[in-house]
Amino acid sequence: MKFDGIKTDRTFIKQVEIDNDKVKVELLGILHSVDSMELDGVNETIKFRYIDTYNEIELEFKRSSNAIVKVLKVKNKIATIKIIIFAMQLRCIYEKLYIKLDERLLNKQLKENDFLITINAQNYIAVASGNNAKDTLFLYESQKIQNDINKLQRTIEKDIENKVELEQKIQDLEHQKQNIQVDEIAFTLLSDTKQLAIERLNMTDDRIIYKATKLMEKTQKEIAGLRLIRLKEPFEFKDGSVRASIKDALEDGDLVSTYLDIWDKYAIKEGDFLLKKARDIGEIEIKEADRFRLKVEIDLRGKMSENDFICIMENTPPYLENKEIDFKTYIQENITQEKLKGKNESNKIQTYKIERITSESIELEKQDNMNLEDLKGKKFSLSIFGDFVALKRKYKARQRMLEGKSANPILPMIFASEVSENLKQILNEQQKNTYPPLSDSVEQKIFKTKPTENQIEAIRMAINTKDIAIIQGPPGTGKTTILNAIIERLNELIDMDLNKRGSIFIGGFQHTAVENLIQRMNLNGIPTPKYGKKTNEIDSLENYDYIMEWSRKIANNIIVKEDSKSIKEFKELAANYCKRPNQSKQKEILQKIINTKELKLKECRDIARYLLDINNTNKIENDLSLIYAIRSNELSFQDDGIDRNYDLLESEFRELLTDKEKQILKNKFFCQDLIKLKNDLIRRFTPKPKFEKEKPNSEVLDLIEKVINVFNNLSIESRINVVLAEFKQKLQSNPFALKNMLKDYSIAFSATIGQSSGKEVLDAKGVQENNEQYSYDTVIIDEAAMVNPLDLFLVLVLAKHRIILVGDHRQLPHMFHEQVLKEMEDDTKEGDSIESELLKESMFGFLKVRAQELEKIDGVKRFITLNNQFRTHPLLGHLVSNIFYKEHNEGYESPRPESDFSHKLKDIEDIPAVWINLSKDMGIDSKNGTSRMRKCEIDMIESKLVEYMSSEAGSGLSYGIISFYRAQTDAIKDRIEKLKQNLNSITIKEALEKVKIGSVDQFQGNEFDIVFLSTVRSGNINNNLSPQKAFGFLAVPNRLCVAMSRQKKCLIAVGDMAYFKSNLAKQYVRGMYEFASLCETKGRVL
Length: 1086
Fold this sequence. Notes:
Elements: E1 11-18, E2 28-33, E3 36-39, E4 42-48, H1 51-64, E5 67-75, E6 78-85, E7 91-93, E8 97-101, H2 103-106, E9 117-119, E10 122-129, H3 130-158, H4 163-178, E11 187-190, E12 194-204, E13 207-217, E14 227-231, E15 236-239, H5 242-251, H6 258-281, E16 284-285, E17 288-289, E18 293-295, E19 309-312, H7 318-321, H8 327-341, E20 350-357, E21 361-364, E22 379-382, H9 385-402, H10 411-415, H11 421-429, H12 440-446, H13 453-464, E23 468-472, H14 479-493, E24 504-508, H15 511-518, H16 545-557, H17 562-579, H18 583-595, H19 602-614, H20 625-628, H21 634-649, H22 659-666, H23 672-685, H24 698-712, H25 716-733, H26 735-742, E25 748-752, H27 759-765, E26 776-782, H28 789-796, E27 799-807, H29 818-827, H30 834-840, H31 843-858, E28 863-865, H32 874-884, E29 913-917, E30 926-928, E31 931-933, H33 935-950, E32 959-963, H34 966-982, H35 986-993, E33 996-999, E34 1008-1014, H36 1027-1031, H37 1037-1043, E35 1047-1055, H38 1057-1060, H39 1063-1068, H40 1070-1081, E36 1084-1085
Parallel strand pairs: 7-14, 8-13, 8-15, 23-27, 23-28, 24-25, 24-26, 26-27, 29-35, 29-36, 32-33, 32-34, 34-35
Antiparallel strand pairs: 1-4, 1-6, 2-3, 2-5, 3-4, 5-6, 9-10, 10-11, 10-14, 11-12, 12-13, 16-22, 17-18, 18-21, 19-20, 19-22, 20-21, 30-31
Helix pairs in contact: 3-4, 6-9, 6-29, 9-28, 13-14, 16-25, 17-18, 17-24, 17-25, 18-19, 19-24, 32-40, 33-34, 34-35
C-alpha cells in the first residue's frame, strides 16, 4: 500500500526545520513526538516553523501518539512533510496473522503487498473500525440489489409477456433489500483502492485466524477512526475455501465414508478378478491363421466365451509379465505412466471380438479389410482393455473426490458416514435459492393439464438445490414430464450472455431411457444431442431421426418463393458443373435456365434453347431428401411415417423401385424392413463420383455468368429468399452436419452413464481425457437407482451446482458382479453382513436418506416422492402402492378415472386384473439349464395374443409379455417368430412386430395397454422350501414391482394360480398373492 493511499480527517502538510542535510524526498517515517521523527531508521530532531502549527500538531498527536510522515520537499534544511495522525494508539501484533479467503476472493488474486505499508523496515497495515465497515457493507449490498431491481424494471418494458413473473422477482428483491443482514465485522483492511471486510474466526496454535468476507471499492475520500497496526511479520492470505478445508479434512481422515469405502474395496476386487481371468488364460500361441480363424493347440471352451475380446500386442502385458502385481498397484502405475508419456499404450493394442470357439480354434467377428494370416507364430491373450478403461475412469473419479477436486467441493461431506459440524455450518451460512418453480411458458409447453402441487414442489426443489435433489418416481408417476419441466426451467435461468454450451448433463443407465427423454425435449428451439452409441452400432441414420424430425418441422415453416428455389438450385448446379463438367450437367443447367420465369432472363433463355438444340437431352438427378425423410423409428413413424412413404411412392423414384420395396412403403405399420430399405435406397441412389476429365463449354460458362449477374442484381427481398432456400435445403438433406452444428449451440448434452466420459462427450466439451477442470453446472440422472454407484460417481464429481437424481429404489436395483460379491462375503468376518448389505443399497437410496438428514439441518427440501400415478387403472395402481410403497410412507394416489382405462377385449371387458389359471395338471414347469420354462403357458399366451389382435377391440392396443425366466422369454420369442411366418394376415404380422417380449430387467420404463405375465412356477409347493427355491426371482420385491406395473388397461397373469395362493406365497411373494386375490374378488379368473 502506498502512503498516499491513506486518507483520514487528520492529515496535515507542514514545514519543519531539520539538522540533517541528508534527508531525502519520499522518505517515510514515524512521528515519535512533536520534536522528533524517525526516517529510514534514523532519528531526526525537528522544529515546526510556526508556533500555532506546533500547538495544533501537539494537540492532535497527544490523543493517540500514533502518526506517520512522508518527506515531500527539502531545501536549505527546511523540510515539507505530510503527517497522518491516527485515531488510536499504535497497536502491535506479535503473532503471525492469517486471513482466509473464500473461492470468490481467491479468484480476485489478492496480494498481501497491496495491503502492507513498510516504514523503517517495519510492516504496518491500516484498518478501519468494524462499525464503519458494517455501514459500508450495508450500503454496498443495498446498492447491488437496487441495481438488479433497475435491470428487471427495464426488462419489463421489453418483455410484456413475462411481466407478472418479473414483477414478482422485483417484489422479492425489495423484501430482500429491506432485510439485509450484515455479519459482525472485526475491521476493514485497506489498500490504495480497495477495502477488505474482515471477521475474526478463532485462535489456534498461537495463530490468530481471520476471514475476509467482502472486497469493496474504497469510495470514501477520508475515513474517520483509521488505525495503524504494526506486525511482527507480514500477514498471510490463506486458502479458506470450502474446497481447501475439505481437502484438509480428507487428508486428516475426518471424512470417512463407510458406504464409499466398501465400493472402493469392491472396485479393487473387481479389478483383481479381471486380472485373474486374464492370467488363467495366459498367452496363447497362434499355430495357424487364415482370414478370420486362429488355430491353437488348447481347447479354450470354458475359459473364454463368445463376445470376449482377444488382444495381440508387441510385448507381453505387464499384468501377465508380473503375476504378483495386484490391480490397485497396476492401475496406479498405469496412471503414472499415462501422465509421464502423455498418452496411453492402448494405441499399440489390436483387439478382436470372438464369434465362435471350437476345441482347436477361435473364429473372430469379421471386420472390413481384416486379414490375420501374418499373425502365425504370434501370441494373443484375453483383452481386458475395455473393462480396464472403464474401471480406470471410475478410479479417477473417486480419486478426484478423495483429493478434494470434485466440482462441488462439499460432495465428500455429503457422502461422509457422519454429518460434520463443518457441513452444518456451510449449509446454514449459504444463501438459499428462491427461484419460482414454473414460468407460464414452461407450464404451457410441458403440461397437458394443470400440474399438481406435488409436481410443482418437485420442480421447485430441483432447481433451487445447491447440492443434491432426489426425486422418487414410483411407476407411472410422470418422472419424464417432471424432468422435462426441470430442464426447461434451468434453461430459462441460465445467463445467456455467457457461454453455457453443454452446461447441463443428462444421463441414464440405458440408451433407450436417454433417448426417450431427449426426444421430448426442445431447448431454445433445438434438439438435445446424444453422444455415444450401443455396442457394434454404426453411426446410421436411425440415430439421427429425432434431429431429422426437428429439421423437417423448421423447414416446413420456412416459406420460400419458387423463383428463390430456382436461383439457389441454379447456383448449385453451376458450381457443380464448373468443378466437374460433363454433358449431363450441362444439359441440366440449360434446361434450368429455360424453365426460369424471371423476365430479365429472356435473352439468356433464348441462348439456352439454342445450345440445348445442339445436344438435346435431359436427365433430372434424384432428390435424396425424399429417402432421408423415411421414418426409421416407431415414435417418428407414428407422427407422419405413412405420408413420407407415399411421398416417395409418388415421386420419380417409383419406376425404379421393385414390387417388394413398394409393398414395404405401402404398409401402415412400422417394421424393421423399413430401416433396411431406407439404407439400401440411400446406397443405391447416392450419385457415384465420376473422375473423367472433361472441359467445360465456354459458351455455357459465358451464359452462366450472365444469369448469375442478373440474379445478383435482384431486389433485397429476392436475395433473402435465396438464402432461406439454401438453409431449407440443408435442413432437409444433411442430418450428419446438423448434429455437429447442434452441439455448438446446445445447453444440454446427453449420454449413458457408461459413455459420459467417452471421447465424443469430451470432444464436445472441448477437453482432454485427463482434464480434471471441466464440469457441468447441473447433472441430471434418470433411472438413477439402476446405476451402479461406481458408474454414478463418474458424473457426480462433475456437478458444480446441483445433482438431480430421479429414480425409484423400489424398482430394479443396480447390477453388481455376483462372484465379486461372493468373494467379499467370504472375506468378511463371520456374522458381519454390513458390507454385502451396503453393496446392495443403491446410491439413490443412500442419498435419499442423507437428503432427509440435511433438510433437518438447514430446512431446505432435497427429497420428494411423486404421489400421483397416471399410467395404470386405479385398481392396479392402488394394489402396487399398497404392496410395495405404503409401508415405507411412499404411497401414491391414482387420480385418473377408471373410464380412462376402458377396453373391450372379449370375456374381460373393462376388467383390469385377470388370471388365466393353468393348474399343475396341465403340465408343470421344467428346468432348462439354470433357467425354467412352461410350455402350456406359452401355448395360452400365443392363443390369447392372436385372439385379441384379431379382434376389433384389440387390434389397436399395444402388448407386452413378461417372464422372470430367460428360457421362457426365449421360447415365447421363438413361438412368435414361427407364428409370424405361418400367418397369412399381414395386419397381424405387423402387429406382432410391435409386441415386446422380455424379462423384467428389459421392461423398466416401458408401458403397454395389455401385459401378459408368465409366472412359470407350478406344482406342489413345500412349505419348508426357501423363498429362492420356491419362487426364484419372483421373491425379489423390486422385480415383482416392475412386473406388476407396466400395464395401462389390463394385467393378465398366466400360470398356476394355486401355487401363488399358498401360505408360502403370501409370506414371500405377497404381490402375486394379493393380485390373485384381487382377480378373484374384483377381477376375473379364466
